């Protein structure tokens, strides 16, 4: 049953359950007692301490795992959470996003690829893959054995479980088309160069290796740091935008260029009826998966204009 939860969910639930344990001990309550009244009192204290709807809803999920599903389905608790949503609604992190062509045109100056240091080449490739609306977690799970190189494109399979994995859903397949017009920002050209440069350094099958010896596989946190540094080098205000903003920028740009919404959802790993894009990702662009490669092609090609 623990295997049904991701590591991140366990960490998130652990925080809530620790607070529940302290609350029960302080108020002399049996922590195993299934009481909607006690749960609402507990959630109210969290709300008054500044917790928002997302945190409270996460706590409800944690407590339902501990106390039973009837806690999550209780009408009073549902009503309480609806009230917190109206009083303290979750807000998207960004109201605007940056123009992808600004970053791509800067990355075009990082050329030729074989003249770049391993650090700079690694950051360039990581940022370009992130601009294909791919989760950083997905990029960190790319294995050499799952990369298929063809004359005009590269296919990357992701068989590992990721955040968007669901029973019955297909795993991501990234298709990177080659851009003959601008090889300096072509993901295929950059990836091939990276594979050649790291071939003699590899003792592992993971695509991305640490910059320093012994060149071990890196985590999504390291990828995030690389991308944030790259965005800063390209003139993006990283005091506002994080590495995750590449998804906002790429999906908003694709939408502005007229890319089909179903393709945007599929590339980003959202379900067909998902409202995630409209609620959190579709942002005005500040000027300053990808099943057939058309998402990638639109994003990269726009920087030519």
From TrEMBL:
Domain Tyr recombinase per the UniProt entry, residue ranges: 120-282
Keywords: DNA recombination, DNA-binding
Gene Ontology molecular function: any one: DNA binding
InterPro entries in the record: DNA_brk_join_enz, Integrase-like_cat_sf, Integrase_catalytic, Integrase_recombinase_N
Stored Pfam families: Phage_integrase
Top-rank taxon, per record: Eukaryota
GO BP term, pick one: DNA integration
Protein name: Tyr recombinase domain-containing protein
